[in-house]
Specification:
The protein is an alpha+beta fold. Helix content is about 25%, strand content about 20%. Among the domains are: about 55 residues; about 130 residues, Sortase, Chain: A (Beta Barrel).
Length: about 300
């Protein structure tokens, strides 16, 4: 058996051949492994031992691995991706809408809380709640006795009249009317709030809900003509241009008579609110008969 030479005893040619054989053995083992795993497509022919070491060797597996072919995208997968993208966009838009809606709702709730904590003084809108004009009563008898004339109230509306009689009177205020003067017929009388039976015993009654003197609206005043001082006895003598002076605790207001009309007791439209400062004087008519009403309208003097 020949003794194996040491590497330093080998010639250059022998070393080259030994290196080639070693590389060939490693390559065969690698190719055999690829065959077993099914990864080999084509195999380059084995190199001859005498072939120069610079000859190219093509390994199809490694070349395939270094230059992968582009994968074909499934159209269905592409469609699903687009659908998912659209769903995500819609979800983001919906979230933004919810946020904006929440901010608006929060702002509304804050405003309501502020309004509840700081309530504004509400000015009541004057409404005509009367069924018949005030001051109605039966003609006084020989002893001067009289009573409210319920006969002029429609029977089906009498319960309403009874409920309106319990309306609370307004709290006294410095801008309320306290006195009335009508120089042309020598009237100088106190003004009280309310025009019910008991109030008209004390003087001229102001309809609850009508404004204070000098303000826009209709100041409705009524008084008797033949009982309890006969304050409005001579309303029929007033002519356009006569003065009606209303006093408050602060100042006086002068109104100028505009016209006079005779109406039925149910003509409550004469008490309706007006857009400018006016005063309406109401009393029963004729004297000692009282089956109608005399109504005098006056406007605030500029």
């Amino acid at each position: 058996m020949a003794r194996r030479k040491a590497p330093e005893d080998l010639s250059v040619e022998e070393l080259r051949r030994l290196l080639v054989e070693k590389r060939r053995g490693a390559r065969k083992e690698r190719l055999e492994h690829y065959r077993r795993t099914g990864r080999v497509v084509s195999i380059a022919p084995d190199l001859d031992l005498d072939s120069p070491p610079s000859a190219p060797v093509i390994d199809t597996v490694e070349a395939g691995e270094s230059n992968p072919q582009p994968l074909t995208v499934n159209p269905r997968r592409r469609f699903l991706d687009r659908v998912l993208l659209g769903v995500e966009v819609l979800a983001v838009l919906g979230l933004v809408a919810v946020i904006f809606n929440g901010v608006g709702l929060l702002r509304t709730l804050n405003n309501e809380v502020v309004a509840a904590l700081n309530p504004e003084t509400v000015t009541p809108t004057p409404l005509v709640m009367a069924v018949v004009l005030p001051s109605g009563h039966t003609p006084p008898d020989a002893q001067g006795n009289t009573r409210p004339n319920d006969a002029e109230i429609p029977e089906h509306l009498r319960p309403m009249v009874q409920s309106l009689a319990n309306i609370p009177l307004p709290t006294p205020a410095p801008d309320q009317a306290v006195r009335i003067q009508i120089p042309a017929i020598n009237v100088d009388a106190p003004v009280v709030q309310g025009d019910g039976w008991e109030q008209l015993k004390k003087g001229v009654g102001q309809y609850v809900g009508s404004p204070s003197p000098g303000r826009d609206g209709n100041v409705v005043l009524s008084a008797h003509n033949d009982v309890y001082g006969e304050i409005f006895r001579y309303l029929d003598r007033l002519v356009p241009g006569d003065q009606v002076i209303l006093y408050t605790q602060q100042r006086q207001f002068t109104y100028i008579v505009d016209r006079t009309v005779l109406v039925e007791p149910t003509a409550v439209e004469v008490m309706a609110p007006t857009s400018s400062p006016t005063v309406t004087l109401i009393s029963c008519y004729p004297y000692l008969v009282n089956n109608q009403r005399i109504v005098v309208f006056a406007r605030l003097q500029n």
